[in-house]
Protein backbone atom coordinates (compact mmCIF):
# COMPACT_ATOMS: atom_id res chain seq x y z
CA UNK A 1 0.00 0.00 0.00
CA UNK A 2 1.21 3.50 -0.83
CA UNK A 3 1.46 6.27 1.75
CA UNK A 4 -1.76 7.89 0.55
CA UNK A 5 -3.62 4.62 0.98
CA UNK A 6 -2.20 4.17 4.49
CA UNK A 7 -3.24 7.69 5.50
CA UNK A 8 -6.68 7.22 3.99
CA UNK A 9 -7.19 3.90 5.75
CA UNK A 10 -5.97 5.19 9.12
CA UNK A 11 -8.05 8.36 8.75
CA UNK A 12 -11.11 6.32 7.81
CA UNK A 13 -10.52 4.17 10.88
CA UNK A 14 -10.41 7.23 13.13
CA UNK A 15 -13.71 8.39 11.66
CA UNK A 16 -15.28 4.94 11.98
CA UNK A 17 -14.47 4.55 15.68
CA UNK A 18 -15.66 8.10 16.32
CA UNK A 19 -18.98 7.09 14.74
CA UNK A 20 -19.06 3.94 16.90
CA UNK A 21 -18.54 6.08 19.99
CA UNK A 22 -21.33 8.45 18.92
CA UNK A 23 -23.58 5.46 18.19
CA UNK A 24 -23.01 4.04 21.67
CA UNK A 25 -23.98 7.41 23.16
CA UNK A 26 -27.40 7.07 21.50
CA UNK A 27 -28.05 3.69 23.13
CA UNK A 28 -29.42 3.18 26.65
CA UNK A 29 -26.77 3.30 29.37
CA UNK A 30 -27.07 1.29 32.61
CA UNK A 31 -27.90 3.51 35.58
CA UNK A 32 -24.69 2.47 37.32
CA UNK A 33 -22.65 3.66 34.32
CA UNK A 34 -24.33 7.06 33.97
CA UNK A 35 -21.95 8.68 36.44
CA UNK A 36 -19.13 8.06 33.96
CA UNK A 37 -20.80 8.00 30.55
CA UNK A 38 -17.53 8.81 28.75
CA UNK A 39 -15.83 5.74 30.17
CA UNK A 40 -18.80 3.56 29.16
CA UNK A 41 -18.64 4.83 25.58
CA UNK A 42 -14.87 4.46 25.49
CA UNK A 43 -14.91 0.86 26.74
CA UNK A 44 -17.69 -0.11 24.32
CA UNK A 45 -15.72 1.43 21.44
CA UNK A 46 -12.61 -0.49 22.53
CA UNK A 47 -14.68 -3.67 22.72
CA UNK A 48 -15.79 -3.11 19.11
CA UNK A 49 -12.18 -2.65 17.97
CA UNK A 50 -11.05 -5.81 19.76
CA UNK A 51 -13.88 -7.88 18.29
CA UNK A 52 -13.16 -6.69 14.75
CA UNK A 53 -9.36 -6.89 14.83
CA UNK A 54 -9.20 -10.15 16.82
CA UNK A 55 -11.24 -11.95 14.17
CA UNK A 56 -9.47 -10.08 11.37
CA UNK A 57 -6.01 -11.09 12.64
CA UNK A 58 -6.95 -14.79 12.61
CA UNK A 59 -8.44 -14.48 9.13
CA UNK A 60 -5.22 -12.90 7.85
CA UNK A 61 -3.37 -16.20 8.32
CA UNK A 62 -6.20 -18.19 6.73
CA UNK A 63 -6.40 -15.90 3.70
CA UNK A 64 -2.61 -15.73 3.26
CA UNK A 65 -1.03 -18.72 5.11
CA UNK A 66 2.37 -18.02 3.52
CA UNK A 67 2.66 -15.05 5.87
CA UNK A 68 3.13 -17.44 8.81
CA UNK A 69 6.35 -18.68 7.19
CA UNK A 70 7.76 -15.20 6.57
CA UNK A 71 6.70 -12.54 9.05
CA UNK A 72 9.14 -10.01 7.60
CA UNK A 73 8.54 -9.63 3.89
CA UNK A 74 5.39 -11.60 3.07
CA UNK A 75 1.94 -10.11 3.56
CA UNK A 76 -1.33 -9.38 1.80
CA UNK A 77 -3.22 -6.12 1.33
CA UNK A 78 -5.79 -7.63 3.72
CA UNK A 79 -3.23 -7.86 6.54
CA UNK A 80 -1.61 -4.51 5.76
CA UNK A 81 -5.02 -2.87 5.95
CA UNK A 82 -5.62 -4.45 9.35
CA UNK A 83 -2.48 -2.83 10.76
CA UNK A 84 -3.43 0.55 9.25
CA UNK A 85 -6.93 0.31 10.72
CA UNK A 86 -5.48 -0.46 14.14
CA UNK A 87 -3.19 2.56 13.91
CA UNK A 88 -6.28 4.67 13.26
CA UNK A 89 -8.02 3.21 16.29
CA UNK A 90 -5.07 3.80 18.62
CA UNK A 91 -4.75 7.40 17.38
CA UNK A 92 -8.48 7.91 17.98
CA UNK A 93 -8.35 6.37 21.45
CA UNK A 94 -5.25 8.40 22.34
CA UNK A 95 -7.02 11.64 21.44
CA UNK A 96 -10.21 10.53 23.21
CA UNK A 97 -8.31 9.99 26.46
CA UNK A 98 -6.31 13.22 26.16
CA UNK A 99 -9.50 15.24 25.67
CA UNK A 100 -11.70 13.51 28.23
CA UNK A 101 -9.55 12.03 31.00
CA UNK A 102 -6.99 13.39 33.42
CA UNK A 103 -3.42 12.59 32.43
CA UNK A 104 -2.66 11.02 35.82
CA UNK A 105 -5.38 8.40 35.19
CA UNK A 106 -4.42 7.52 31.64
CA UNK A 107 -0.65 8.01 31.32
CA UNK A 108 0.01 4.24 31.17
CA UNK A 109 -2.37 3.76 28.27
CA UNK A 110 -1.18 6.90 26.50
CA UNK A 111 2.37 5.55 26.73
CA UNK A 112 1.18 2.13 25.52
CA UNK A 113 -0.61 3.68 22.55
CA UNK A 114 2.45 5.77 21.65
CA UNK A 115 4.62 2.65 21.53
CA UNK A 116 2.07 0.72 19.45
CA UNK A 117 1.50 3.57 16.99
CA UNK A 118 5.27 3.98 16.54
CA UNK A 119 5.94 0.27 15.95
CA UNK A 120 2.92 -0.23 13.67
CA UNK A 121 3.83 2.98 11.86
CA UNK A 122 7.23 1.57 10.94
CA UNK A 123 5.49 -1.55 9.66
CA UNK A 124 2.98 0.13 7.36
CA UNK A 125 5.44 2.70 6.03
CA UNK A 126 8.18 0.19 5.20
CA UNK A 127 5.86 -2.64 4.17
CA UNK A 128 7.90 -5.03 6.31
CA UNK A 129 7.12 -6.96 9.52
CA UNK A 130 3.40 -6.86 8.71
CA UNK A 131 3.07 -10.52 9.67
CA UNK A 132 4.80 -9.79 12.97
CA UNK A 133 2.34 -6.94 13.63
CA UNK A 134 -0.61 -9.23 12.84
CA UNK A 135 0.71 -11.74 15.37
CA UNK A 136 0.79 -8.92 17.91
CA UNK A 137 -2.86 -8.15 17.15
CA UNK A 138 -3.85 -11.67 18.18
CA UNK A 139 -3.86 -10.28 21.73
CA UNK A 140 -7.10 -8.54 20.78
CA UNK A 141 -8.83 -11.91 21.11
CA UNK A 142 -8.23 -11.64 24.84
CA UNK A 143 -9.12 -7.94 24.82
CA UNK A 144 -12.68 -8.87 23.84
CA UNK A 145 -13.14 -10.58 27.22
CA UNK A 146 -11.06 -7.97 29.03
CA UNK A 147 -13.36 -5.18 27.84
CA UNK A 148 -16.48 -7.29 28.41
CA UNK A 149 -15.31 -7.73 32.00
CA UNK A 150 -15.32 -3.97 32.54
CA UNK A 151 -18.66 -3.55 30.77
CA UNK A 152 -20.21 -6.07 33.16
CA UNK A 153 -18.66 -4.34 36.16
CA UNK A 154 -19.92 -0.95 35.08
CA UNK A 155 -23.39 -2.43 34.53
CA UNK A 156 -23.28 -3.79 38.11
CA UNK A 157 -23.28 -7.40 36.88
CA UNK A 158 -20.08 -8.49 38.62
CA UNK A 159 -21.86 -11.02 40.83
CA UNK A 160 -23.58 -13.12 38.16
CA UNK A 161 -22.63 -16.35 36.41
CA UNK A 162 -21.85 -14.48 33.18
CA UNK A 163 -19.18 -12.46 34.94
CA UNK A 164 -17.63 -15.54 36.54
CA UNK A 165 -17.55 -17.41 33.23
CA UNK A 166 -16.08 -14.38 31.48
CA UNK A 167 -13.44 -14.06 34.23
CA UNK A 168 -12.27 -17.64 33.65
CA UNK A 169 -12.26 -17.25 29.85
CA UNK A 170 -10.52 -13.90 30.23
CA UNK A 171 -7.74 -15.39 32.34
CA UNK A 172 -7.33 -18.37 30.01
CA UNK A 173 -7.16 -16.27 26.85
CA UNK A 174 -4.85 -13.86 28.65
CA UNK A 175 -2.30 -16.63 29.13
CA UNK A 176 -2.72 -17.99 25.59
CA UNK A 177 -3.08 -14.82 23.52
CA UNK A 178 -1.13 -12.30 25.58
CA UNK A 179 1.60 -13.94 27.64
CA UNK A 180 2.32 -16.77 25.20
CA UNK A 181 2.12 -14.47 22.19
CA UNK A 182 4.52 -11.95 23.71
CA UNK A 183 6.92 -14.76 24.69
CA UNK A 184 6.79 -16.20 21.16
CA UNK A 185 7.34 -12.77 19.60
CA UNK A 186 10.37 -12.16 21.83
CA UNK A 187 11.83 -15.54 20.87
CA UNK A 188 11.20 -14.89 17.17
CA UNK A 189 12.87 -11.49 17.38
CA UNK A 190 15.98 -12.94 19.00
CA UNK A 191 16.22 -15.83 16.51
CA UNK A 192 15.87 -13.48 13.53
CA UNK A 193 18.16 -10.77 14.80
CA UNK A 194 20.57 -11.14 11.87
CA UNK A 195 17.74 -10.51 9.38
CA UNK A 196 16.47 -7.32 11.02
CA UNK A 197 18.11 -3.86 10.76
CA UNK A 198 19.40 -2.45 14.05
CA UNK A 199 16.79 0.33 14.25
CA UNK A 200 13.85 -2.02 13.71
CA UNK A 201 15.33 -4.60 16.07
CA UNK A 202 15.81 -1.98 18.78
CA UNK A 203 12.29 -0.57 18.34
CA UNK A 204 10.80 -4.06 18.45
CA UNK A 205 12.82 -5.09 21.49
CA UNK A 206 11.96 -1.96 23.46
CA UNK A 207 8.30 -2.22 22.49
CA UNK A 208 8.09 -5.87 23.52
CA UNK A 209 9.86 -5.21 26.81
CA UNK A 210 7.38 -2.45 27.67
CA UNK A 211 4.36 -4.53 26.61
CA UNK A 212 5.57 -7.55 28.59
CA UNK A 213 6.07 -5.51 31.77
CA UNK A 214 2.66 -3.86 31.46
CA UNK A 215 0.91 -7.15 30.80
CA UNK A 216 2.53 -8.88 33.77
CA UNK A 217 1.28 -6.09 36.03
CA UNK A 218 -2.19 -6.30 34.48
CA UNK A 219 -2.27 -10.08 34.91
CA UNK A 220 -1.53 -9.69 38.61
CA UNK A 221 -4.29 -7.08 38.96
CA UNK A 222 -6.82 -9.34 37.25
CA UNK A 223 -5.82 -12.37 39.30
CA UNK A 224 -6.01 -10.40 42.54
CA UNK A 225 -9.33 -8.77 41.69
CA UNK A 226 -11.26 -11.74 40.26
CA UNK A 227 -9.76 -14.77 41.98
CA UNK A 228 -7.81 -13.82 45.11
CA UNK A 229 -10.47 -11.71 46.77
CA UNK A 230 -14.10 -10.70 46.42
CA UNK A 231 -15.00 -8.92 43.19
CA UNK A 232 -15.45 -5.26 44.16
CA UNK A 233 -14.78 -2.15 42.09
CA UNK A 234 -11.32 -0.68 42.66
CA UNK A 235 -9.56 2.47 41.46
CA UNK A 236 -7.46 0.31 39.11
CA UNK A 237 -10.46 -0.99 37.18
CA UNK A 238 -10.02 1.55 34.39
CA UNK A 239 -6.43 0.45 33.84
CA UNK A 240 -7.33 -3.25 34.12
CA UNK A 241 -10.17 -3.01 31.65
CA UNK A 242 -8.16 -1.26 28.98
CA UNK A 243 -5.29 -3.66 28.99
CA UNK A 244 -2.84 -2.19 27.71
CA UNK A 245 -1.90 -4.09 25.34
CA UNK A 246 -4.39 -3.49 25.20
CA UNK A 247 -5.11 -3.49 24.92
CA UNK A 248 -6.54 -1.49 25.89
CA UNK A 249 -5.43 -2.82 24.17
CA UNK A 250 -2.77 -4.08 22.45
CA UNK A 251 -0.34 -5.16 21.82
UniProtKB/TrEMBL annotation:
* Pfam families given in the database record: TRAM_LAG1_CLN8 (PF03798)
Main localization, broad class: membrane
Q: Which UniProt keywords apply?
A: Membrane, Transmembrane, Transmembrane helix
**Its domain of life?**
Eukaryota
Q: Where is the composition biased (Basic and acidic residues)?
A: 237-251
Which regions span the lipid bilayer? 44-65, 71-92, 104-123, 129-148, 168-186, 198-220
Listed under GO cellular component are: plasma membrane
Q: Where is this region: Disordered?
A: 231-251
According to the entry, every stretch annotated as the TLC domain falls at 35-228
Q: Which InterPro entries match?
A: TLC-dom (IPR006634), TLCD (IPR050846)
The subcellular location is: Membrane
Gene Ontology process terms (BP): membrane assembly; phospholipid homeostasis; plasma membrane organization; regulation of membrane lipid distribution
Q: Which SMART domains match?
A: TLC
The UniProt entry lists membrane topology as: Multi-pass membrane protein
* Classification via PANTHER family: CT120 PROTEIN (PTHR13439), TLC DOMAIN-CONTAINING PROTEIN 2 (PTHR13439:SF2)
Designated name of the protein: TLC domain containing 2
Q: What organism is the protein native to?
A: Oncorhynchus mykiss
Please name the taxonomic classification of the source.
Answer: Eukaryota, Metazoa, Chordata, Craniata, Vertebrata
Its gene name is LOC110507699
Amino acid sequence: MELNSVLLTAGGSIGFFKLVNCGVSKLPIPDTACRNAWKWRNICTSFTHSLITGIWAVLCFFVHPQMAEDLIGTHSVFSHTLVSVSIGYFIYDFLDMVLNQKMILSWELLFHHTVVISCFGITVLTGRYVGFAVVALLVEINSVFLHLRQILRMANLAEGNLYRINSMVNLGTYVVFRINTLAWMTRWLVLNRDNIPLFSYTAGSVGLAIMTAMNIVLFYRLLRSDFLKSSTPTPTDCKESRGQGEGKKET
